[in-house]
Design a protein that fits this description.
This protein has about 80 residues and is mainly alpha-helical. About 70% of the residues lie in helices and about 0% in strands. The protein has helices spanning about 5-25, 35-60, 65. The longest helix has 26 residues, at about 35-60. It is elongated and about 45 Å long. It starts with a helix and ends in a 9-residue tail after the last helix.
Length: about 80
């Protein structure tokens, strides 16, 4: 069934959302109204989101993530 993998993905999404929110509230998050600041915000949020989501999927053993890995790292 798909219930367990979907719940795992939902958990990974929630953890990613919390991590991104923590970044936004931290002093490391760029602030301002210029295009460069907006690009910095976008890059930092997307980078953190990808790392956290993929890391959580790996830790939770989501099989779909294994398809994204190169063959030499699959087990």
């Amino acid at each position: 069934t798909l219930t367990v993998p979907v719940l795992k993905m939902l958990l990974a999404t929630v953890v990613m959302g919390v991590a991104c929110w923590v970044l936004i509230e931290s002093p490391l998050y760029p602030t301002g109204n210029s295009r460069g600041v907006w690009i910095g915000q976008l890059i930092s949020l997307m980078g953190l989101g990808v790392v956290v989501y993929c890391g959580m999927c790996y830790l939770l053993g989501i099989e779909a993530m294994k398809q994204l890995m190169p063959r030499r790292f699959r087990r």
